[in-house]
Write a structure and sequence with these properties.
The structure holds 2 protein chains of 2 kinds.
Chain A: E1 4-7, E2 10-13, E3 19-25, E4 31-38, E5 42-51, E6 54-57, E7 65-66, E8 76-78, E9 87-94, H1 98-101, E10 104-105, E11 109-113
Chain B: E1 4-6, E2 10-14, E3 19-25, E4 32-38, E5 45-51, E6 56-58, E7 62-67, E8 72-77, E9 86-93, E10 100-102, E11 106-111
Parallel strand pairs in B: 2-11
Antiparallel strand pairs in B: 1-3, 3-8, 4-5, 4-9, 6-7, 7-8, 9-10, 9-11
Classes of the chains: A mainly beta, B mainly beta.
């Protein structure tokens, strides 16, 4: 089944403890992206990647890192999480880029930083 | 600046009625539009898309209308069912930027 898989689905952590949220897609998509979703603010892009080893900042990149060493994986790294990063996170992928075929989203990771 | 908005945060309809969810966009350079459905606890799911060279596109029970003159997008759901209850997002993109911008979302509630 074609899908975007995120792990974990739920995570509670403490301020300052480094964490990684994994994202993997099995559709051979070139484009991958991370979003956070907050009440009243909608979906905001954190980082995106047009292809392997090509990443760029989205609208809210502060406090996050990403890497794209393989085409299928696009992990989101929080080096020192803070409570304002408590949010619902979505990974998304697209065949050739954002404007061509839309995105396929993962099921989300609900992160709580205490 | 660029923004995509929905006219109503919540829409309540009776089962079997038709639903119309509206969206206004501000970037006249946008040439690709998508509607997503997000059910509770799940990621957004693609419903239907439309390009700027079209005014209307139909899918199964859904129709998207695009009015470029007033920069307005709508999603029509025929014979709304309880399973249609979700948050609906419109999104716009421009070939120039390659970026997809999402609106705030409209919650559709279907009353039995």
């Amino acid at each position: 089944e074609a899908q975007v898989t995120q792990n974990p689905r739920y995570l509670i952590t403490v301020t300052g403890k480094k964490l990684t949220v994994t994202c993997s897609q099995n559709m051979n998509h070139e484009y991958m992206s991370w979003y956070r979703q907050d009440p009243g603010l909608g979906l905001r892009q954190i980082y995106y990647s047009m292809n392997v080893e090509v990443t760029d900042k989205g609208d809210v990149p502060e406090g996050y890192k990403v890497s794209r060493k393989e085409k299928r994986n696009f992990p989101l790294i929080l080096e020192s999480p803070s409570p304002n990063q408590t949010s619902l996170y979505f990974c998304a992928s697209s065949l050739y880029g954002a404007v061509i075929y839309g995105y396929t989203f993962g099921s989300g990771t609900r992160l709580t930083v205490v | 600046g660029e923004s995509v908005g929905l006219h109503l945060p919540t829409l309540s309809v009776q089962e079997g009625d038709n639903s119309i969810i509206n969206c206004a966009y501000s970037n006249s350079a946008s040439d690709y539009f998508i509607w997503y459905k997000q059910e509770s606890g799940k990621g957004p799911q693609f419903i239907i898309d439309i390009r700027s060279n079209m005014d209307k596109r139909q899918g199964q029970r859904v129709t998207v209308l695009l009015n470029k003159t007033v920069k307005h997008l709508s999603l029509q759901i025929a014979a709304t069912q309880p399973g249609d209850s979700a948050v609906y997002f419109c999104a716009e993109a421009s070939s120039n930027t390659g970026k997809l911008i999402f609106g705030q979302g409209t919650t559709l509630q279907v009353k039995p």
